[in-house]
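Data availability (excerpt). The following record was deposited with the supplementary files.
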Amino acid sequence: MKALVLESANRFRYEERPMPVCGQEDVLVKVDAVCICGSDVHAIAGRSPLFTYPRVIGHEVAATVQEVGRHVSGFVSGDRVCLMPCISCGHCHACRKGHTNCCSSLRLYGVQTDGGLQEYFTAPASNWLKVSNPNQPAQIAMIEPLTIGAHAVAKLDLEPEDRVLVIGAGPIGVSCALNAKSYGARVTLADTSSERRIFVTDCFGFTVMDPLSEDYAEKIETYSKGELFDAVIDTTANKRSMDTAWRYAAQAGKILFVGISGGMLEIDEAKFHMKEPSLYVTRNSTRRDYERILELCAAGKMRPADLITHSATFAAAAEQIVRWVQPGSGVFKGVVLF
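Predicted structure:
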């Protein structure tokens, strides 16, 4: 079988590998589709501190079951599945409390161990989730990034008509916005990219502001009815944005950091304190988040394929992915189809 290996920054090569062996606790799958994530982009560009080369990237995976291990139940050949990429130990304090997304020794497929950009792939049964709806490979591969927004937004205990500002209108920002909307919240986004503002407005109907525009403060007042926002979600991983995101939260509001900044954040503590806000961070997702997204998809309230703008065959992926991650490529979300 063939695997696509990221050898070094911006350099892929195809490699012939033996078929994976299906262990007694494992499920062997034929990969159908892999979406390219923001963390993949950083790895391809050589900017990921957690990443080691060479590596088969890809943790947003749709697949079809080929074989199940002797001790596995609940899966049969032909089942459509998506990968839950967090590899948790199962016995640390976080895992015992059910927080497998932040296991003390957490690893991810496609980051610390080989991921989905290969024709066949094996992982423990606990890392696979059977999917009946949606049933298209590209849609199934998009479930994982939607669970990131589901896990993040669940922390906010949103109520209908709550005003939410999402800073950053990339795929994870839109994931957060769609999940917030599913609770009945009124969502506004902000992004410096005119391409993203146009795409997100046209495709999803959200208002997307330009935080660099002269009338940004005025628009904040307008969209928040002069009371700022019940919740502010920052997905940018940008220090300047994260330092100031709390200023847009209402009194007793909530701030949620989704993106991870590599440095120290600076907050005007006295002014921050006087608002009595709540500050949250979020990391990865859990099985319950996948189940929620599948429920929303089944109800027609979430359409994963809407986020995908570009596709490539596996045979062309080595060339196409490098193009997708270049500035100005116009790619919102790309998917590799096998």
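Summary of structural features: The longest strand covers residues 26-35.
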